[in-house]
Design goal:
Layout (H helix, E strand, L loop, with lengths): L1 H10 L8 E6 L1 H12 L4 E7 L11 H10 L6 H12 L2 H5 L10 H14 L6 H13 L4 H11 L4 E6 L7 H11 L7 E5 L6 H4 L1 H15 L3
Helix pairs in contact: 1-2, 4-6
Amino acid sequence: MAKDVFELLNHIDWTSERQLHIIGISMGGMIAQEMAYQEPNRIASLSLVSTAPRLINTVGFVENLRQRINLFIPKDTDVQLVEIKARLFSDQWLAAPDAEGNFPTNGDRFAAQEVKKRRNTEAFTRKGFTLQAIAAGWHHKSFEQLQEIGDKVGRERIQVMHGTIDKMITSYHGEMLVKELGGEESGVTRLFFKDRGHVLPVEERKEFARLIERMVDKTGGK
């Protein structure tokens, strides 16, 4: 998938050194790591959000097995919505009044958006979901590879962002990224959001945008 992104960027002639500000969220963060590993000199800044260098079992064998099985058990839509909301967002954010003002709570708005998405059966398929899960499971960046990314991209150009109660990809994985990229002491920016879940651009919209803008301004594409 990283090669697909580079093919598109090459097609539109975005090929200069230090031209790309890459923001990768969840599996997108895994793709962003691969991009930084393949073409480090093209990266102006690298923001790795709610993602992992490789997936580690942090909940124990039985719970990990239960979660994996549950992904593929057919369920009513209402049950699926309750489970996906709990995995993606903090309870605090879900219960808060809808930020857009059209629904009673943020959780209600997300549920409505999710139902609308799933009605598009050509775009949202079981096959696509399964392949995404497999791709995320196969992603693996070693300590040595992350050190190389830090060396060649430049640690001052890298920030790792994670919610402390992320149930999709636990914050342990974010800490792994910070440490194995070289650590804060070497210039990597660590931004962890207390009591926030997996989708930081939604739960912390204004602050997330501010921090991304700060990194872009700091690196300046040079």
